[in-house]
Amino acid sequence: MATKQLRQRADVPEEQKWRLADIFPDTAAFNKACADLIAQGEAIAQHRNDLLDDAGVLYDTLTAYFQARTLADQVFNYGEHLYNSDMTAAAGQKAVAQADQTVTTFATATAFVEATLPQVTDAQLAALTQAEPQLKQYAFIFAQAQKRQPHILGAGEETLLSALGQTFTAPESIYNKLNDADIAFGTMKDAHGNEIPLSKEKLYQLYQSPDRAVRKTAAEKFSQGYARSQYTFAEALQQHVHTQNTLAHLRHYDSARAMDLSAQFIPEAVFTNLVDTVHEFLPSAHKYYALRKRVLGLDPLYSYDLSVPLVGEAPLKPTFEQAKAWALKALAVLGDDYLAHLQEEFGNRWIDRAENAGKLSGGYESDVFGVHPYVLLNWSNTYRAASTLAHESGHAMQSVYADANQPYWYSQYSMFIAEIASTCNESLLNHYMRATHQDDDRIKAYLLTESVEDLLNTIFNQTKYAEFEHFMYTSDAAGESLTPEKLNDKTAALDAAYTGDAVTPNPWPNVSWARIPHYYMNYYLYQYATSKAVANTLAQRILADPADQVPQYKAFLSAGASDFPLAIVKKAGIDMTKPDYIRETLTVFDRQVDELADLLQK
């Protein structure tokens, strides 16, 4: 648990940093772009009251608006990426503040554009398009807006709701302050007897400790930290859920779930199919937990034992160069053009990979239309880091294909499908690595464990969280209070249903609901599970029949946001209104658990 001494940003070699000069060559260009964006917003705002009066005005305003939005994305990404490179540096702090202020000013000035579009009737749109045929290039923009018409309130009511925006987000703000600033977990002794502060960042490391007493102490202290404030956490959740239920009622939706899924035009059957199908395969999850219990020789097995490696120390410790080579070989099945784009990413400093003091933790990809995607990593020589490289590169490649085939306004793909290309890459990488190490049972078992755990955490666990979220909304809608006791009991019941008899409940209240920030993101969690199921199914089909499947997959990558999300996924050959794709993936999961059991037996 020794503290790792990180390099300063200035000491990181240039080839390990992303090249932000591709967006703006220097600060002067960035400053000019900020000024230009504000001026463009002011010019667009001149048509606040006459946007629908004339077809030419509407076309010119929409064209100017999306051109300005392209610039806004460049301004935002430049400031954000410079700041995330080193959050202690004055230059980054200044740039992100300037970018945020500029983009907010622009957004405020031009908010009327997208607020006005749902007011356009079919008759109006037909007349406007006849008068200005170039408006047809925005046809899907209008189609989406018209689907929202029944849920748009009067101008005065919309103004009132807009003014209450900060009030609506207050529960999440309170949660974040409580979870990030106020909560404390105390200290504990590590496996070497050293007294260390316990934090959320250290918890995963401690859960992997071979010393069970360390794992138990970490779990209990972590739970106690949340339990001390469980009434405040519960009240914040109650208010958030009640606010969303109220908004759904005001906007004439049947439920908050209907409202939140309709934001991306997703039918509720996608949610219910997921939950129902995962329940069919719970015996497969139970089989894995029983295997873990048997292999570790732990009876009883507790939740804090579920991260202990099954094969000991990780046998793969790749360098960044090795990980790039793995990715190129694993993803070769997607064709020469895909590999060429990957090589462009790897060779032209799209990636900021080195850890340094002050850098944002974790990893992400962000597209800059008209430039190229950017990827942030914090590289470590682990298989998981190599999988993260493949994952974020999947996002980048979807951005590359969408940007090349769509105009800006159709290029930014929906969050509902955003995790498909990334996790498809993870599955292809894992399959390639297992095939490469076919004769090494220990490495195969390690890689198979990674795949099984990934499916377990992304499909089973996220579905469990989605069930819990739905329970909260339906309870509040029925007039029931979300007390800590009620939330604890439901969490414990769901945990028992998903883990089966192999895992014994911890001997303290189950307050794990309090640690999940995604409960404030309005029916977001289920999307992790559906995306992973689609991605894994696509990977299996691509490997089985690349000649047929790869062209469909690239049609999906290229579609961006040019159609409704389910229609875009259907381009890849998957109908998400049916549960077949979930069954395909969970059948693979069940088979992998059996294969892992055989390997561990050896």
Automatic annotation (TrEMBL):
Gene3D superfamilies in alphabetical order: Oligoendopeptidase f, C-terminal domain, Oligopeptidase f, N-terminal domain, putative peptidase helix hairpin domain like
Limits of the Oligopeptidase F N-terminal domain: 119-185
Note describing how the cofactor binds: Binds 1 zinc ion.
GO biological process: peptide metabolic process; proteolysis
Cofactor(s), by name: Zn(2+)
Pfam family, one: Peptidase_M3_N
Gene Ontology molecular functions: metal ion binding; metalloendopeptidase activity
Domain (Peptidase M3A/M3B catalytic) ranges: 206-586
Key words, A-Z: Hydrolase, Metal-binding, Metalloprotease, Protease, Zinc
InterPro entries: OligopepF_N_dom (IPR013647), OligoPept_F_C (IPR042088), Pept_M3A_M3B (IPR045090), Pept_M3A_M3B_dom (IPR001567), Peptidase_M3B (IPR004438)
Assigned EC number: 3.4.24.-
Stated family: Belongs to the peptidase M3B family.
Function: Has oligopeptidase activity and degrades a variety of small bioactive peptides.
PANTHER family: PROTEASE M3 THIMET OLIGOPEPTIDASE-RELATED (PTHR11804), SACCHAROLYSIN (PTHR11804:SF84)
Matches recorded under NCBIfam families: pepF (TIGR00181)
Protein name, UniProt field: Oligopeptidase F
